[in-house]
Amino acid sequence: MRRLAAIITACALSLGAMQAFAIEELSWGDLVPPEALDLAGMPQPTHDLSALADTLSDEEFGDPAVQMQPAAPVVAALDGRSVKLPGYIVPLGIDPDGSVSEFLLVPYFGACIHVPPPPSNQIVHVRSKKGIELAALYQPFWVSGAMQVEHVESELANAGYRISEASVEPYSY
Predict the structure, then answer these.
(1) What is d(CA 169, CA 92) in angstroms, rounded to the nearest whole number?
(2) CA–CA distance from 81 to each of 4, 9, 19, 148, 164 (Å)?
(3) Under 8 Å CB-to-CB from 169, ≥6 apart: which residues?
(4) Which of 15, 60, 86, 104 registers the highest number of CB atoms within 10 A of its CB?
(5) Does domain 24-170 have CATH number 2.60.60.30?
(6) Per-residue pLDDT tens for 92-115?
């Protein structure tokens, strides 16, 4: 009987440990605290480039150099969690081999370049394990890793989150 109880306890602990290491798939709305859900005027995240042709314009979004909310509130409970988030890559530099391994992950194409940067709680600063080819940056990607709730400033925009040692793979529709 003791042996059976020990086996059951070991299995329960193993299941709990597996859940702790499970990767949680997030949406961009999960990065905004419930009390700050007013994102009016920001385009909805989309990963279909053809749908964006008529939605992004300078008149609608203003000066592309000015971030909407550079210190937007974040979700502290995300700190340390293993997450997976889809988005677009805005390079912060190019590695000597022509790839990109440090970038901002944003919810929609053109953010920080063609339209003003979104609020900082809609930007993740990422350092990837492996560089991404520069020519591939026009497609959406999945980024996975340990989320850190941390304010990060860059020349293009401030980010409210960071993922270091991230795994990056193309987004599949």
Answers:
(1) 18
(2) 33, 25, 11, 8, 12
(3) 141, 142, 144
(4) 104
(5) no
(6) 999 999 999 999 999 998 787 777
